[in-house]
Amino acid sequence: MTATARAAARSPQERVFERIDSLGDDLVALTQDLVRIPTVNPPGEAYQPCAEFVGERLRRWGYDVEYHRGLGERGDNDAYPRLNVLGRVAGRSSGPTIHFNSHIDVVEVGKGWSVDPFAGVVKDGKVYGRGTCDMKGGMAASMIAVEAILAERIDFPGAFEISGTVDEESGGFAGVGFLAKRGYFSRPRVDYVIIPEPLHKDCVCLGHRGVWWAEVETLGRIAHGSMPYLGVSAIRSMTRFLEKIESRLYPALEQRQTAMPVIPEGSRRSTLNINSIHGGQVEIPRGSDAAPSPVVADSCRVVLDRRYLIEELPEQVEGEIVALLEECKREHPQFRYAVREILHFPPNMTPDDSPLVQALDAGIRQVFGYDSKHVVSPGTYDQKHVQRVGHLKDCVAYGPGILDLAHQPDEYVGIDDMLASAKVMAAASLRLMGLATP
Fold it and tell me: Which of 82, 182, 292, 346 suits 392 as a labelling partner, its CA being 20 to 30 A distant?
């Protein structure tokens, strides 16, 4: 058999897998380039140069590229415009559209790094840097997966889309939420959405727990600090409320378990994090020689981050907080409060018999030689907008990276893991397009 005949006899998947292996250096370089653009959120730095970098690469590969600013959405402003990029490349016949969506924003660096967080350092088979795991490594892997299909000139039906969207770390309202409102994550335009979040290379993430963020404020009455009995301390009121959370709510949440396959296992229950607390006067900066004035605090605010289960009713989540506040009010007639919801997204799960889930299952089996594991994320990601606003149920997270490394110092992504995940994404895409190896 001639070399030409042998090449023709290889399946599309075999050809694409070989192509991905040959693109390993390109995959690493792409990940480094993405990490070197410090898209820190908040405030939303370098979104435009990152979106344009992605857009130019997509254009070179034949994509039609669009840029969409999240005008009017939470977080968007002229100093830090929320710019999203979206590319589409179509085959020569009709078929499904497969969309790979990645967020380009990363969280603050924090302390404890042993390498430059924005240098894209490569060592020991890993790429280090803020956002390598969450989720620029996944974005690079998805781009390489499609580039391998295009480079092999596979005659695929349908279309591929790649998007780089903003603000996932702060709710995604000006990113996927904005685009979903405009039909970019709905049928008939899109059939399947894969979000390459770092939920482990051999796992398919079906969804996430619910989230309710709220600010609770206790209200007091100001008075001279030497005569506190003439005022009402909002801080003392807040301690009464927090004591009830400690003694009543936390023990109750510990008992609520879920059938959702959440990872890590510690998150298979309801949780509540007290995100921040602010009471009384504005804090005096450390090192300042200023002194506080003697007043009774008339306001104290606490921000609550409540994660809840698919077995819980959404109205129950806020209701149990209000019930504790009302109890404080009955016990202390001067107790006053206000509750302000910051954001709320219910839990969701894509059915495991979805064609998208089954295609990724098959890809994982082919690449790793064993069955995939279905999981649920402890925190939300942009699937919430695709399903809630776009009403597209065939959406899951799949990508390289170890969940526990997200937002940590010395964050990294494994190079072999990115290559393997790119193969899984390519295999799943070919299967959804009817070009899979039996």
Answer: 82
Backbone angles phi, psi at 298, to 5 degrees: -100, 5
pLDDT, tens digit (0-9, with 9 covering 90-100), for 271-324: 999 999 999 988 878 878 788 899 999 999 999 999 999 999 999 999 999 999
C-alpha 253/C-alpha 308 separation (Å) is 9
Burial (CB count within 10 angstroms: exposed 0-12, middle 13-18, buried 19+), residue 4: exposed
State the DSSP string of 15-75: HHHHHHHHTHHHHHHHHHHHHTS--BTTTTTTHHHHHHHHHHHHHHTT-EEEEEE-TTSTT
All structural domains of the chain, each given as residue ranges with its CATH number in brackets, are 3-208+347-432 (3.40.630.10), 210-344 (3.30.70.360)
Q: What is the DSSP string of 97-156?
A: EEEEEEE--B----S--SS-TTS--EETTEEESTTIIIIIHHHHHHHHHHHHHHHTT---
> What's phi and psi for 299, nearest 5 deg?
-150, 140
